[in-house]
Amino acid sequence: MPTFRMFVPKRHGRSLLHFRAPQITPQSVIHISATEASEVFDPPPISGQSFFGFIGNASITVQNVSPGNGVVDFIVFVDFASPLNVVTDITIMDPPEQIIMGT
Fold first, then answer.
1. Chain centroid to CA 81: how far?
2. Can you give the pTM of this predicted structure?
3. pLDDT grade for 46, boundaries at 50, 70 and 90
4. CA neighbor of 74 nearest in space, from 23, 30, 9
5. Domain chopping of the chain, boundaries
């Protein structure tokens, strides 16, 4: 169950994002979280990561997660007056154990 962290700079309103990984299939279950992110630090204070996530004053949501062959497309919506940096954590899980048709 791999998780990838993706930094997305200066987002405002609705942003269509794409993440590519060969293990993603149309049947994959993908969980994505998002939060506000700091500016990029040089040199990085944490080994390999030059930013950090935090809870700011903006509402940031993930919407319409859609896995395909080697890619997941999703919307990040930043409800704030100005563009913000965002960090997402993308976890790729196994396909569902069972498919149930709702009514």
1. 21
2. 0.89
3. low
4. 30
5. 3-93
